[in-house]
Structures are given as structure tokens and as C-alpha cells.
Specification:
Layout lengths: L12 E6 L6 H12 L4 E4 L6 H8 L8 H6 L5 E5 L13 H6 L1 E3 L4 E3 L4 E6 L4 H8 L1 H4 L4 E4 L5 H17 L3 H4 L4 H9 L8 H22 L1
Parallel strand pairs: 1-6, 1-7, 2-3, 3-6
Antiparallel strand pairs: 4-5
């Protein structure tokens, strides 16, 4: 983000985040929005694989909301194209002018994105795979590329500690007495952490705590 501040305001800054799923790419962008005090404009690109997706990107009649209207109505210059790798690759040419000249237009509207920072989250595993899928012309228009890697065992153990502590705060004091926090943490840390999905961790913790409370409060 510091680097984007050195970029001319007439341009758009496009930053591609790549790496395995569930390691925090989307959450990183949400965090930037939260700390920046702005509302993030998030476009879910995994839906752009059909003719409906083509209509959304390239525009159709005025009664249907498309990408251009969504960008015109944005609340800030922080934009996220989530799961950009899931787009039908034939649609990527629609983004050339946006990434190059900060302009985007469809059959009905035009939007100026000068000064905006656009994040693209993807599950690509390498720069070569990025180029092979989005093409060299689009790749050359990227402002920066950031690689995300799988979390280490130490990272996952810290995530377990933080996640359990956060979930405990949401439990009433009355029910909190049924939970041995250290035991719960040790149960999760005793699992094969290499196959533990950070995305599912929170739900698993919540489910485990709920089962403990129900068992000790109602079944004993």
C-alpha cells in the first residue's frame, strides 16, 4: 500500500494476490478496508462464467445492474475482484482498458476509476500459471503481485489460540465454566495441522465448544 502512494493519481493500481485457498487473501483486503475506515466494494467473480456473467460485465439493458453501475455506486476507491481466476478467460479482455487507462465502459455507462486500488484474489500457484490463464497483455498491466503461502504449523497453532480466545468471549459467563480452554486448545493442536483449513477452523471451534457445553450442562 505504501508503494501505491508513489503512483500517479490518474492511474488505477491493480494488485494481484495469489496462492492456495483459505490462507487470508480476501481477509487481508477486508482488513485494509477496516483499518482505512472505508467501505470495500467487493465483486464476486466466480459467478462470471455464464452468459449472465457476460451480461454483467459487458452490459445489457438499463434495467439490469451490471459491473459499471456497481463501480459507479462504489463508496470508496478500494475495490476487490474476488476469485478473479474463476472468470471465464474469454472475459478478461474486458479489463484491459480498466487496468491501463482507469476507464471502464459497457453498452450503457462509463466509469472513471482514477486513483482506485483494485485487488484481485486468485488461487494460482505461480507467476507462470497466472500468465498462462490471464494472458501476457493483462499480466503486464498489473501494478504488483503478492504471493501467499500455506500457513506453517506455528502459524496455525497461534491461529488456534486466537480463534478459541475470540470464541470464548462470545459465550456467556454461565456457560464458560464448563470449558477447559487449555484442553480445547490442546485437542486442536494435537490434530494433523497440515490438513487443517484456516477457513473451517472457526466453525470447527464453535461446534466443539457448543458440544462441550451441551454435554456438560444437559447430559451429565
Amino acid at each position: 500500500m505504501y508503494k501505491t502512494g508513489e503512483f500517479e493519481e490518474s492511474k488505477v493500481k491493480v494488485v494481484l494476490l495469489y496462492g492456495p485457498p483459505g490462507v487470508g487473501k480476501t481477509e487481508s483486503v477486508k482488513l485494509l478496508a477496516r483499518y482505512g475506515g472505508v467501505k470495500l466494494t467487493r465483486i464476486q467473480m466466480s459467478m462470471m462464467q455464464t452468459m449472465d456473467g457476460a451480461d454483467f460485465i459487458f452490459g445489457t439493458d438499463h434495467s439490469k445492474v451490471g459491473l459499471t453501475q456497481s463501480l459507479l455506486l462504489r463508496d470508496s476507491n478500494l475495490i476487490l475482484f474476488d476469485e478473479f481466476d474463476k472468470v471465464n478467460k474469454y472475459f478478461y479482455n474486458a479489463f484491459y482498458q480498466m487496468f491501463d487507462e482507469a476507464l471502464f465502459e459497457d453498452k450503457n455507462y462509463q466509469v472513471n476509476l482514477a486513483g482506485a486500488t483494485i485487488f484481485l484474489t486468485t488461487n494460482f500457484s505461480s507467476r507462470r500459471q497466472i500468465i498462462e490463464n490471464i494472458g501476457e497483455p493483462l499480466f503486464s498491466r498489473l501494478f504488483d503481485i503478492v504471493e501467499y503461502k500455506n500457513l506453517s504449523v506455528n502459524d496455525l497453532e497461534q491461529l488456534i489460540d486466537v480463534s478459541i480466545d475470540e470464541e470464548i468471549k462470545n459465550i456467556s459467563k454461565e456457560d464458560r465454566v464448563f470449558i477447559d480452554i487449555d484442553s480445547v486448545k490442546n485437542v486442536f493442536k494435537g490434530k494433523d495441522l497440515q490438513f487443517l483449513s484456516p477457513r473451517l477452523l472457526k466453525n470447527n471451534i464453535r461446534s466443539t465448544l457448543t458440544k462441550i457445553i451441551i454435554s456438560k450442562k444437559f447430559l451429565n
